[in-house]
Design goal:
The structure is a single chain. The chain is globular. It has helices at about 15-30, 45-55, 80-85, 95-100, 105-120, 130-135, 140-155, 180-195, 200-205, 220, 240-250, and strands at about 5-10, 35-40, 60-65, 90-95, 120-125, 165, 205-210, 230. It is built from eleven helices and eight strands. Strands 1-2-3-4-5-6-7-8 form an eight-stranded parallel beta barrel, surrounded by five helices. Helix 2 links the parallel strand 2 and strand 3. It starts with a strand and ends with a helix. The relative contact order is 0.16. By secondary structure, it is an alpha/beta fold. It binds 2-phosphoglycolic acid. 2-phosphoglycolic acid binds next to strand 8.
Length: about 250
């Protein structure tokens, strides 16, 4: 039985005031839903604040990205070791916005995944197809290519301590959630691919759905057998909506 994980991805949003209010509001639902793991991934500059606010609570947190390097002349970057020092459990890697706006290739993503894991963080690997690829029926092929690139560099056992997030790009921030059936089919295919390497890994790895997962759509998604929670953008910025999503994960158990 896989533990559901509901993770917020705040992206480039927040102020000291809003972060404080949001983290404080999420501590109670995180505690009240003990069978669900709840986490928020924050812009790097807010991670220290989240660390202070979340101390002693059930709320876990992480970064939205990490550099490949741990130190050196890489102006503007945040290293996995630094992120770990601030108490993060997770680091998102390969989000489609990083792939698109920061030219992160499959190779870069695979190496970031390695650096994140080496620092003792759990990588949350995002994969997913564009609208054009979806319309051409290339969804599974795209996901397999993105996943294989990481397996080739890190090995299948690396997924014993990692999370996968399937995020169709056409659903991100558009309000067009993938139907539970579409998402379930892709998740099952991802698990089938992993099973070719290791049945243990395929059975144990958490596969989250992301892309307009919200208070209305979360329950039906989380009811699907291969969907183990959500990576939530917009709706994770509103405490009542994110709370409903956390509760949906408990209800769907
Ligand atoms: P969204 O974003 O929930 O706002 O669609 C999800 C994500 O990009 O992780």
């Amino acid at each position: 039985m896989r533990t559901p994980l509901v993770m917020g991805n705040w992206k480039l949003n927040g102020t000291k005031e809003s972060v404080t209010a949001l983290v404080n509001a999420l501590k109670a639902p995180a505690a009240a839903n003990p069978k669900v793991e709840v986490a928020v991934c924050a812009p790097a500059i807010f991670i220290g604040l989240v660390e202070q606010l979340a101390a002693g609570s059930a709320l876990k947190y992480g970064s939205e990205d990490a550099d490949i390097h741990n130190s050196g002349a890489f102006t503007g970057e945040n290293s996995p070791v630094m992120i770990k020092e601030f108490g993060c459990k997770y680091a998102i890697v390969g989000h489609s916005e990083r792939r698109a706006y920061h030219n992160e290739t499959d190779e870069v993503v695979a190496n970031k995944f390695k650096a994140i894991q080496a620092a003792g963080l759990v990588p949350v690997l995002c994969i997913g197809e564009s609208l054009e690829q979806f319309e051409k029926g290339e969804t599974n092929a795209v996901c397999e290519k993105q996943l294989k690139a990481v397996i080739d560099v890190n090995g299948i056992d690396a997924f014993k301590n990692a999370v996968i997030a399937y995020e169709p790009i056409w659903a991100i921030g558009t309000g067009k959630t993938a139907t539970p059936e579409i998402a379930q089919n892709v998740h099952a295919n991802i698990r089938a691919l992993l099973a070719k390497y290791s049945k243990d890994v395929a059975d144990s790895v958490q596969i989250l759905y992301g892309g307009s997962c919200n208070a209305k759509t979360a329950y039906d998604l989380f009811k699907q057998p291969d969907i183990d929670g959500g990576l939530v953008g917009g709706a994770s910025l509103k405490a009542p909506d994110f709370t409903t999503i956390i509760e949906s994960a408990t209800k769907a158990l």
